[in-house]
Amino acid sequence: MSANTVLYDHPGPRARVRNALLTVVFGVALAGLLWWVYAKFDQAGQWEGALWQPFTEGATWTQFILPGLRQTLFAALTGMVLSLAFGIIFAVGRLSERRWISIPAGAVVEFFRAVPLLLMIFFIFYGVPFLIQGPVPAFWAVVAGLTLYNGSVLAEAFRAGIRSVPSGQSEAAYAVGLRKSQVMRLILIPQAARAMLPVIVSQLVVLLKDTALGYIVAFPELMQRGVNDLAANRGNIVAAAIVAAAIYIVINSLLSTLANWLDQRSQRRGFRAQRRIATGANRAGGVSVVEPQG
Amino acid sequence: MHVFADPTNFDAYVSSFLWILKLTGASAVLALVLGVLLAAMRVSPVPVLRGFGAAWVNIFRNTPLTLVIFFCFFGLYSTLGLSLVDDLDLNNFWLGVIGLSAYTAAFVCEALRSGVNTVPAGQAEAARAIGLTFAQTLRIVVLPQATRSVVAPLGSILIALCKNATIVGTIGLMESSNVMKDLINSNGDAVIPIFLVFAGTFAAFLIPTGYFFGWLANRLAVKR
């Protein structure tokens, strides 16, 4: 029993019996559910060795999964760099005192935050070729969609972060004679980035997951290669989907762990907040202005 | 705008957004119920429940929604033969709702859990001191305060859910993104108006929704 929770007392004899009972009842129900899933899979012949055997062959990994994973990571990395740049530019633009900069920047950010990523990717992949009279590579359709969407979300995160820096910081910077661009670059953005780092990392997890949409425009990323193409050759679509899901879960869990660690690190310094009910949940969810979405 | 003057196209446009609306509505209700249950499990005194909640959240939060929906169709339906209704479109719709709510419930759970984090520890201690049980503490003292602080995150989750509903198009439901793709392919001369109408419809609904939830969150915020 975790001792640090304040939601319930240390269990006495009756509570221990009740908890044990709940454990047994729920454990049995869970086991029943798992068995049902197992039986269903068995009925459909999904446990047959032939379906899982491809994952013991080197060729499956070297020809399908790993090249797909490389494309996924490459698209995600390109998208991350571009959307961070997009985010910083539009956050600063929206905070500008010149209205002819701040209003268009705000409109762009609000618009792209509201448009589904799939709609963007379809427009870029199927629509833009009509406009430029030439094909758009699937890679760039995915990366451009990811950049516009996640860049806009990050722009809001940066803006909230910049506004959360105490005003004394920029006043002091002006007082020592820094120019407006220097205040932004040297004082505000570094502090904002640190405050918003957990949200930024969470958004990058969203971005990495969204690369899976690439399979819809046949971009050879992990889902296209490791699930679609592999299953087309070996007829093991469920097995392939489970393996691909496991790969995504491992990568994203590592990134989420990083986000939590950064969050706890940034929580430790600064003033001590009031004692809260500790559930181990990521603080970013409840406190920050901008939620990671996806 | 001649594209939408054609009644066939206009009907396709309207029905595509009706699908999105239905997907969002059904999944929002299911995800909220499931998310509250998962959140209660994750803070409960029973380790098996905590483990189940944690496993659910970690699996669904870290898997791409595209893959979840894909699995609902090819795994649950094609391979395991889970057929919910006879009508193909309606069946895809419910498969989409299953995927969307299972995925979104993980985010609802995390939002509620971090909402519980914002309640001062003294509130729960006082509740225990006057003899409330775990369920009473949650129901009467902690969750009402936590809910108010998660209005904004839940609003973002709802907006994300509405946009994510387009992903159900990948299993063949004729929702907005698929209809837009078809319209673009048959009307290459009106690509930008078509995109602006579809994207504008989302923006017209979702931007005010975002501001509404911001306003609501401010209004309901617990003054401390």
Can you walk me through this structure?
The complex is a heterodimer of chains A (294) and B (224). Chain A is built from eleven helices and no strands. Chain A is mainly alpha-helical and 294 residues long. Chain A has helices spanning 13-43, 49-52, 58-94, 99-114, 117-132, 138-164, 167-175, 180-210, 222-234, 237-268, 284-287. Chain A has one domain (67-287): Orthogonal Bundle (MetI-like fold). The longest helix of chain A is centred in the first third of the chain and has 37 residues, at 58-94. In chain A, 75% of the residues lie in helices and 0% in strands. By secondary structure, chain B is mainly α. Chain B has one domain (2-220): MetI-like (MetI-like fold, Orthogonal Bundle). Chain B is flat, with a radius of gyration of 21 Å. The model of chain B has no long low-confidence stretch (mean pLDDT 90). The interface between A and B is large, with 74 and 81 residues. Chain A: Its main location: membrane. Chain A: Residues 69-255 form the ABC transmembrane type-1 domain. Chain A: It is a multi-pass membrane protein.
Question: Gist?
Answer:
Chain A is an all-alpha fold and 294 residues long. Chain A is 75% helix and 0% strand.
Q: Which structural traits does this protein have?
A:
heterodimer; A: 294 residues; mainly alpha; MetI-like fold; B: 224 residues; 81% helix; 0% strand; flat
Q: Kindly provide the radius of gyration of chain A, computed on alpha-carbon positions and rounded to a whole number of angstroms.
A: 24 Å
Q: Which word captures the global form of chain A?
A: flat
CATH class of chain A: Mainly Alpha
**Greatest chain-chain interface?**
A-B, 74 and 81 residues
The number of domains of chain B? 1
Count of discrete structural domains of chain A: 1
**Segments of chain A where pLDDT lies below 50 for 5+ residues?**
282-289
How do the helices and strands follow one another from N- to C-terminus of chain A?
HHHHHHHHHHH
Q: What is Rg of chain B? A: 21 Å
CATH architectural name of chain B: Orthogonal Bundle
Biggest beta sheet attributes of chain A: none
Strand count, sense and barrel status of the largest sheet of chain B are:
none
Oligomer: heterodimer
Number of strands of chain B: 0
Query: Which percent bin holds the helix content of chain B?
Result: over 70%
Instruction: Identify the CATH class of chain B.
Output: Mainly Alpha
Remind me, CATH topology of chain B? MetI-like fold
Task: State the CATH superfamily name of chain A.
Answer: MetI-like
What is the CA-CA span between the terminal residues of chain B? 53 Å
